Amino acid sequence: MIVLKKPPEAQLMRDCGRAAAAAMVRMADSLRPGITTAEIDVIGEEVLSEYGAIPSFKGYRGYPAAVCISVNEEVVHGIPSGRMLKEGDIVSLDIGAYKNGFHTDHAWTFPVGEISTEAKRLLSISRESLNQGIAQAKPGRRIGDISHTIQSYVEQNGYSVVRDLTGHGIGRDLHEDPSVPNFGKLGTGPSLRAGMTFCIEPMVCVGRHRVNTLDDHWTVVTADGSLSAHFEHTILVTENGPEILTQWDQEGGADA
Ligand code: CO
């Protein structure tokens, strides 16, 4: 069942989304060789609390941290630890904020120092696939239009989309209907209506789309060890098209 949000509820989610976006900016500003992923997690949780929000992920199915931090061939759900980032890594930060009785969810992949040409290309193709998916999020379109647009853009550029994990509706629950796959067919799936809120979150691999889960039961890695990136925004569908609830100033200090 897809829950439509009325304008007052959308306003509460907008406010919640600002917390997730602010946390992303501050975590991004902290990135440098030598910082540990656990230190980044602390920053994310601190910013949420400054904004009156708490982490959506901590305790979710036993997840132990506020932020999912996934490096290089790690796709999603990496657990913060004493691991130090190093020059040339790419790092995906994924944070959920809970405030006003609602969740928002946001992920971005950043370079650490100077990265390879291939890694730069992966970040730009993956980020553009999210933008193209978001552009489909308007009344009259269907979920499959978002899915297909992301898949075809990524595959045209020689990369693959992860199929085992999807985007999702979001609101009073972190995961609501509908599921938002990153692959699919035009003209299929639920029709989009104003008041829907969902996360679009392409996970893109340089190599093949197969993934495995590590023995920690969380960290998802590419099966072939290729680099992977993850970009996610929480979107509100309005009569005028998509509104991004987790937007931050991407021309500011922290840019991919
Ligand atoms: Co999500």
Commentary on this structure:
There is one protein chain. The chain is α+β, with helices and mostly antiparallel strands. The protein has one domain (7-244): Creatinase/methionine aminopeptidase superfamily (Creatine Amidinohydrolase). The protein is 28% helix and 26% strand. It contains four helices and 15 strands. It has helices at residues 7-30, 37-50, 117-135, 143-156; strands spanning 54-55, 67-71, 74-76, 90-99, 102-111, 160-161, 167-169, 176-180, 197-200, 203-205, 211-213, 220-222, 228-230, 233-238, 241-244. It has a five-stranded antiparallel beta sheet with strand order 8-7-9-14-15. Strands 1, 2, 4 and 5 form a four-stranded antiparallel beta sheet that branches. A three-stranded antiparallel beta sheet has the order 3-12-11, with no helix packed on it. Strand 4 (90-99) and strand 5 (102-111) form a beta hairpin. Helix 1 packs antiparallel against helix 2 and helix 3 packs antiparallel against helix 4 (143-156). The radius of gyration is 17 Å and the shape is globular. The model has no long low-confidence stretch (mean pLDDT 97).
